[in-house]
Write a structure and sequence with these properties.
The structure is a homodimer. Chain A is of the alpha+beta class and about 230 residues long. The first copy, chain A, has helices spanning about 20-30, 70-80, 90-120, 125-140, 145, 150-160, 160-165, 180-195, 205-220; strands at about 5-10, 35-40, 60, 65. In chain A, strands 2-1-3-4 form a four-stranded mixed beta sheet, covered by helices on one side. In chain A, helix 1 packs parallel to helix 2 and helix 1 (about 20-30) crosses helix 8 (about 180-195). The longest helix of chain A is centred in the middle third of the chain and has 34 residues, at about 90-120. Chain A is globular and about 50 Å long.
């Protein structure tokens, strides 16, 4: 029986763009576990209440629900120890935590400024209403006003990528010769952008661009096969 | 025979503040290797020419010179494999590289803005002349003009520490339950500040402050025993 992944979707249900869900798309591919996705919208809280969660990703493995991308990754490594590990031991755990907090605390806030209006336009009308009012309340301004500074945010974003850019001069992936969960965690925000916006984040000669291409090509181009822009 | 560490010093030779040398102070303590330091100034290039280097740290182990903090760390782990490792395996290598590029590419540039005038005041007259002219050329402005924006740089610095702050909510050191080279690499810039300037970097309730205290307390308060401010 395939694992079910509840996955944030736009008005076009093929459009998948949650950075947290992307961690799990890539994690399931990494472990070679068969899975199906169920498109889910922000306003469908009832549909995942069975997992005691109001956000995705949620997976159901057999009859067992697991919510929260970090907990899902831990669950998959614990439940399927014979499959390739997402986090290889304690030292990689620390790398993955650091990468997570860097992605969530530095990259994602800058991306939100670049993407927020485009994200909204990808959503169902009902989700647009929810997204606009909750985000405008949180940001203290309209989505349009907030995103007006996005060229500046892009400069800061490219600057903030310095540590990733430099490590990619030494090794092809954050985790070394092959990707693992820390790479997927950093890739998530890039898929958030790719799935919602045509806005160009990276110069083509940026080593981070080449890394993103490698990530898009993994598993027969799995991540690339989703609608972009 | 004790290892010799050539170590950047101020006009007061007890004042040691190179972030790269501090990596090696801590590394040698970590490995429990006896060492003596030789104070060195920016303008004493001749004194380390034997190591084919124009910068410190340089160590001499027996009759073998090794320059460059990263190469010294690799050398120490290779040469003294029975001592506690600075970098435990490949995954911790990747963590350490990421931490290095984050410290060098994000933290140090912000610190330079906060510290540059104070650093200059700590140097010998001859080093002051060298430091001011080389740095003003690089920065395209006077040290005084550059450092005038330091309160803003401090805000950015505290913001940039987000990933470290968050991982410290999960574990006491970047490397987990005990510090290793990645912690020393991130600690280096803080010792650069401590050894040159009274400027307060961190709020006392910041988890990064508590981590810095733990680092200062390692090995019987070794790092704390040097002149500060």
């Amino acid at each position: 029986v395939a694992i079910i992944l509840y996955d944030l979707a736009g008005a076009d249900e093929k459009r998948r763009f949650s950075p947290y869900c992307w961690r799990i798309h890539m994690a399931l591919k990494h472990k070679g576990l068969p899975f199906d996705t169920k498109p889910w919208r922000f306003t469908e809280k009832d549909a995942i209440a069975f997992a005691n969660s109001t956000t995705v990703p949620v997976i159901v493995d057999g009859d067992r629900p697991v919510a929260d991308s970090w907990k899902i990754a831990e669950y998959l490594d614990a439940q399927y120890p014979d499959r390739p590990a997402l986090i290889h031991g304690d030292a990689e755990l620390h790398l993955t935590r650091f990468a997570r907090h860097w992605a969530e605390g530095v990259l994602s806030p800058l991306l939100l400024r670049m993407l927020v209006k485009d994200i909204n336009q990808r959503l169902t009308p009902k989700d647009q209403e929810y997204f606009r009012s909750s985000r405008e309340k949180r940001l203290g301004q309209s989505l349009e006003a907030y995103t007006a500074g996005r060229d500046q945010a892009r400069e800061q974003f490219r600057q903030a990528l310095t540590p990733l850019r430099r490590i990619l001069a030494e090794q092809p992936f954050l985790c070394g010769d092959a990707p693992a969960f820390a790479d997927y965690v950093v890739f998530g925000p890039f898929q958030w952008a790719r799935g919602t916006s045509p806005y160009f984040l990276l110069a083509e000669d940026d080593p981070v661009f080449a890394w993103r291409e490698r990530m898009l090509s993994l598993h027969d181009g799995y991540a690339r096969s989703f609608p972009a822009g």
